[in-house]
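Q: Is it fine to ask for two folds in a single conversation?
A: Yes, each is treated on its own. Send the first.
Q: Here.
A: Result:
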Amino acid sequence: MSNEEVKNTVNEEGPLEEEPVEAEQVEEPAKTVEQVKVRAGEFVKEPAKTEVEEGPEIDEDIEIVDEKFYTINLRDVWKGPRIKRAPKAVRIVRDFVKRRMKVDDVKISNAVNQEIWKRSIKKPPRKIKIRAVKDKEGQVIVFHATGK
């Protein structure tokens, strides 16, 4: 086919009909993970509050049988590998309280856990001050001893 034949065939078929293309509005790129999840249609959960309940509010629900203050030296934590230090510190605190309060059921409060993990898994504190509270059921809860 020559160029003239090609032109004729295009003209014979008629002009090409193009559908009008509407310009889409371009949104700004998402800058945070939450924005990406919202655009994807996922449910975004509210960020957790970092505030920890203080001792007096929690103590109202507990009938205190025994209460003791301790300063625990966490020097043995630093003998192990860096990646296992904070979990080992939590175990040392739990074992220390079990031994001193003579119970098997020990719960560590969020404040103590945050204090241990504050500087990441590799650098837990050398010492920590705690307040161990034993209730009438024999359960011990370990609180952070702040200001005492």
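Q: Second one now.
A: Result:
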Amino acid sequence: MAYQSIKISKGSHGWGGPLVITPTESKKYIYSITGGGIHPVAQRIAELTGAEAIDGMKKSIPFDEMAVAVIDCGGSARVGVYPMKKVFTVDVNPASPSGLLANYITEDLFVSGVTINDIEEYPSD
């Protein structure tokens, strides 16, 4: 399957990025861990890339199969865990690096304050 690339920019009051995401056969899941259900940001990423959105509250998958994790955390737990595991992380809240895992939260792995308007198609190589 051919996946499409997208660019995700920080939203209003957000931090980090922009991230260019291109799912692959080994990293084909958009992991939505936002309190239940597929968040609209995760759904939009899945639609544009051709990847599969997964509700992380109902199904767990290995970090190395995630093209991106979509979170809604303003604290330091999920904000840092996914970047620590080298998973591109999109926070729908306007969070910035903080807490014990702050050194893992880098602009090349993390972007925050994201809405569906901050996601756009990106030319593939």
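Q: Anything structural to flag on that second result?
A: Two points. Helices lie at 40-49, 77-84. Residues 40-49 form the longest helix (10 residues).
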